[in-house]
Amino acid sequence: MDTQGRMEGDNSGNGKVDNRTAREKAIDEWLPITSSRNAKWWYSAFHNVTAMVGAGVLGLPYAMAQLGWGPGVAVLAISWIVTLYTLWQMVEMHEMVPGKRFDRYHELGQHAFGEKLGLYIVVPQQLIVEVGVNIVYMVTGGTSLKKFHDLVCSNCKEIKLTYFIMIFASVHFVLSHLPNFNSISGVSLAAAVMSLSYSTIAWSASVKKGVQPDVQYGYKSKSAIGTMFSFFNALGTIAFAYAGHNVVLEIQATIPSTPEKPSKGPMWKGVVVAYIVVALCYFPVALIGYWMYGNAVSDNILISLNKPTWLIAMANLFVVVHVIGSYQIYAIPVFDMIETVLVKKLDFNPTFMLRFITRNIYVALTMFIGICFPFFGGLLGFFGGFAFAPTTYFLPCIMWLTIYKPKKWSLSWITNWVAIVFGVALMIVSPIGGLRQIIIDAKTYEFFS
């Protein structure tokens, strides 16, 4: 992958000499990340909300039930603070080399760790996160559509989840052909509004239901080992909920930048707004959901709330719209990687046909895997720890230490090491819990049911 984040004199407005060949210029104008540089700060706000407030928010009350009050509140709050800090680091590092922009996560990785090593460290993790999210969202979209159908039409014939996942995927066979981030800003805005709406429905409907009779807040599992594994799985679910970092440089790449007005100003403004929305979504849902249902809460809070039917049906429809936008936000960097390799390494011509074929194959693949493995809760914990914790909690800190080399025992040095230790602990324990959950779910599961 060509990682020279050379300044384009023609479209970043800073008068730098543009030394790219005509072919390189044409390719950069064709690739989804670098083709459009005229985003406003509020694009960054709703892209970040859409990327972060995923369906993971609906699993937070269940995670709270596995963690308990004290650890649950602590992990939620610490994660919010740590991930806001690491996001700030990434926004700062986007243009730390004068005249260069790190438009993609792996380009920053290569600057920090070297050409080859940077690719090996960042790309696999980023791909696991983005492709993992896309697969999980296929399942979520299908499940929410099915729930909507079952609520609205309770005496209709039962339709398999597989078909709903296919219906959900059909939207992406169309939307995936939008060229870049700016062209999906409308979809993204709708998705961001929906995430706030269904989060609000989730906690307000819980409040209306009130604390359930004989509610219990103790750990559900009877054995100490079971409790420990559930605890680990819940940590992964929370790590999954804070996963917007994988697309943050790519979002920032769409904002115009000059030496007088670097892109980090508007980008950070958008991030702060996004994080306030994240707090408004996460904390009420997690705390109120757990408070009302205790350890009997379902791994998707909307499933625990069956009445009023119209409201829960609407919330499920909101989830579908939101997940449509979120899928696209995570798919665009993947398309960018695939198309970069095809055009720059394998010398394919940057044509509509190439894009049409590759993107359709990708959507079909994520759909197929989603149909094969729809164990939602376990998947979240497994992916959450395995790849989200590094890219979100501690990889930015390691890059910061490598590039800026803060003085030993200085505040910056200590803060980064605390975040690294916290993130590494998350990465080690949560996949264990998630894998166990998948094994338990798989025992009762029939393929293509």
TrEMBL record:
It is a multi-pass membrane protein. Keywords: Amino-acid transport, Cell membrane, Membrane, Transmembrane, Transmembrane helix, Transport. This is Amino acid transporter transmembrane domain-containing protein. InterPro entries: AA_transpt_TM. It is found in: Cell membrane. It holds the Pfam family Aa_trans. PANTHER family: OS05G0424000 PROTEIN-RELATED. Belongs to the amino acid/polyamine transporter 2 family. Amino acid/auxin permease (AAAP) (TC 2.A.18.2) subfamily. The chain crosses the membrane at residues 41-60, 67-88, 117-140, 161-178, 184-203, 271-293, 313-335, 356-376, 382-404, 416-439. Residues 38-433 form the Amino acid transporter transmembrane domain. GO terms for cellular component: plasma membrane. GO terms for molecular function: amino acid transmembrane transporter activity.
